[in-house]
Structures are given as structure tokens and as C-alpha cells.
């Protein structure tokens, strides 16, 4: 696949979904690694299950890469050109060196620099999602986290009972 092929994919908009775009880019990275090392690396499965502060995570034993669609949507071009190769490099390093190589050590940096031609940055520059608002409630035995929706119901008079101790849950502001 040519170097800039992802930009034409992105411009197709709704025809091609996010998972296809990131998976294509992962395969593009693996094609480069195959050519560089004269090897055939095992392509990982990709999904969009990543949540929270990480833009992506490489699950080495499962040969799986999870991407954060919240961050992808902030800047697809940036995500495709930085986050995808970052995670692909983790998988490639693992397939060459096993778990002896450090996560962002010299092997990983070399793959980023020499195979992908990218400055090896450990961190991303995307905004992280706002922390979920939780409301703390207590019964006689435990602490319970309520969503805003449930907290509103309590304020409207709904009573919640702990399944374990049968006490009513009290808001501790
Ligand atoms: Zn990393
Ligand atoms: Zn309880």
C-alpha cells in the first residue's frame, strides 16, 4: 500500500468505517515491517474497545490492538499517522524479541524510526475524555457509585436498597 493511501480512504467519509481505516493502516505498517525485516509478521486483530486516557493499547499475548475512537474522531489524520504505527511497533517488537524488550525501549524506537520513519513519541497529544461524574452512596456494608441519572432519581424520591445488607443507600455528598 502506498504511503499516503490513508488520506484518500479518509476522504471517502461514510463509505469506510473507522475500524476499516485503522485496520488498513495497521496492515500497511506490517507490510513495511515485512519488507524491512524480510519476515512475515502475524497481523493482529484490531478493535475500537479502548477507553479512557490511552489512545491505543497493544495486547501482545493476544496479538490484539485496541484503539480509542474518542481520540480518533478528534483528529483522524494525526491518529492514523502516530497512534496506529506506535501500537503496531509494539506488536512487531514483541514478535521479534518476545517480552525481553522494554515497552518503549531501543528496539521499539528503532522500528518507529527506521521502519516507519516516525519520531518515536511515548505519549499522544489527544484530549482525554472528561472523567465520569459519580455520586458516592453508602449502605451499612459498602460504598456504591451512582450515575447522575440515578442520583437525580433519588432526589425525586426513589429509594435504593443494598442487595447485601438491605439498608437504604444514603448520599454522602
Ligand atoms: Zn506504547
Ligand atoms: Zn450494604
UniProtKB/TrEMBL annotation:
Transmembrane segments: none annotated. The keyword Zinc-finger does not apply. The keyword Protease applies. It holds the Pfam family SprT-like. Residues 24-172 form the SprT-like domain. GO terms for molecular function: metallopeptidase activity. Keywords: Hydrolase, Metalloprotease, Protease. It comes from the Bacteria. This is SprT family zinc-dependent metalloprotease. It comes from Marinomonas colpomeniae.
